[in-house]
Design a protein that fits this description.
This is CAP domain-containing protein. The chain is an alpha+beta fold. The chain has three helices and four strands. The chain has a domain of 42 residues. The chain is elongated, with a radius of gyration of 33 Å.
């Protein structure tokens, strides 16, 4: 029993020393880290994308699911079906909500 306690005491002392005393990195490890850092930096800094400019249209309406901001309610109802929910606010605005049943997935 005394030998087990003594062994456990040595293990605890060893673990405390390992936790408290800082371990210096070896020269091969630091050089390997520097090589990896430089290769990652070269990968991230190299330009792989082309610099082609995108053409900006003269006029473009905002649209989601081919529903544009300037469409009438009847046009939206024809494309999406009847609104699932209509909510009103204090300013008299009615918000029509359209969604499918798989939006929760």
């Amino acid at each position: 029993m005394f030998k087990i306690r003594r062994l456990l005491l040595y293990i605890v002392i060893f673990l405390i020393i390992v936790l408290v005393v800082p371990i210096k990195e070896t020269a091969p490890m630091t050089s390997l880290q520097q090589q990896l850092k430089s290769s990652v930096d070269s990968w991230t800094s190299s330009e792989t994308a082309t610099n082609d400019e995108l053409k900006v249209p003269n006029k473009h309406d905002f649209a989601v699911n081919n529903i544009q901001m300037n469409m009438s309610k009847q046009d939206v109802d024809n494309k999406l079906g009847k609104a699932k929910r209509v909510t009103s606010n204090e300013y008299g605005t009615h918000w029509h909500t359209y969604y499918s049943d798989d939006y929760r997935a």
